Amino acid sequence: MNVRFRCLLSTVESDSHLWNLVYLQKYLEENGAEVRNLGPCTPTEEVASAIRAERPDLLVVSSVNGHGFHGAQVLLNALRERGLEVPCVAGGKLTTAVSDDDRVRRELLELGYTEVFTGDDAIPHFGDFLRFGMAHGFSAWRAEPAPITPWDSNLTPEVI
Q1: β-sheet bridge partners, residue 61
Q2: Helix ranges (DSSP H) in 35-81
Q3: How far apart, in whole angstroms, are the C-alpha atoms of residue 20 and residue 39?
Q4: Is the N or the C terminus of the chain less surrounded, counting Cβ atoms within 10 Å?
Q5: CA distances from residue 90 to 29, 78, 150 in whole angstroms, order as listed
Q6: Distance between CA atoms of 46 and 61, rounded to whole angstroms?
Q7: Dist CA 118 CA 91 (whole Å)
Q8: Cα(62)–Cα(71) distance, integer angstroms
Q9: Cα–Cα distance for residue pair 157/4, rounded to 1 Å
Q10: 58-69 pLDDT tens trace
Q11: Are the C-beta atoms of residues 28 and 35 closer than 8 Å to each other?
Q12: Cα gap 104→115, rounded to integer Å
């Protein structure tokens, strides 16, 4: 395998699923990553310690239990409080309602995630992100803004 970047793979503390992490580990490896999979129910301090020790090029946070949005917020805030900066992406089933995906994506991007992957095109979009990151650096990625949905009434819709 031709390793082109180092990646930490994690989930949030509340997510005990493993199959998504195994799938993503294999996908990342097939796309040039040396992966350290931190496993399910990953404690925030374990993620922080791994970032300090290994200085990865990318942190990938996956969740499939529908509560990843909250955990992803807690994780990134905790990393920032510790002064740890690394390109971070999140994806999977981050909420229990698909109708919240755009709002969740928007809020996680505003918080500082480099990209957020949800929905039917998550894996192809993730592949595009990985190719871009290997060519230009993951921190150079500029995510497209999430659409503002009609039910987000307190926000002003983007002009198309």
Answers
A1: 10, 90
A2: 44-54, 68-81
A3: 10
A4: C
A5: 17, 15, 24
A6: 13
A7: 6
A8: 10
A9: 39
A10: 999 999 999 899
A11: yes
A12: 11
CB 64 within 8 A of CB 17: yes
* Contact partners, residue 159, CB within 8 Å, separation at least 6: none
Q: Which of 44, 13, 38 is nearest to 24 (CA)?
A: 38
Q: What is the pTM of this model?
A: 0.91
Contact 36, 50 (CB under 8 A): yes
Crossing angle between the packed helical segments 68-81 and 101-111, to the nearest 10 degrees? 0
Confidence tier at 128 by pLDDT (50, 70, 90) = very high
Handedness of CA 25, 131, 86, 16 (dihedral sign): negative
Q: Which two tokens stand for residue 83?
A: 């002064």
pLDDT in tens, 6-60: 999 999 999 999 999 999 999 999 999 999 999 999 999 999 999 999 999 999 9
| Count of other CB atoms within 10 angstroms of residue 41 | 16
Q: In 3-state terms, what secondary structure has residue 69?
A: helix
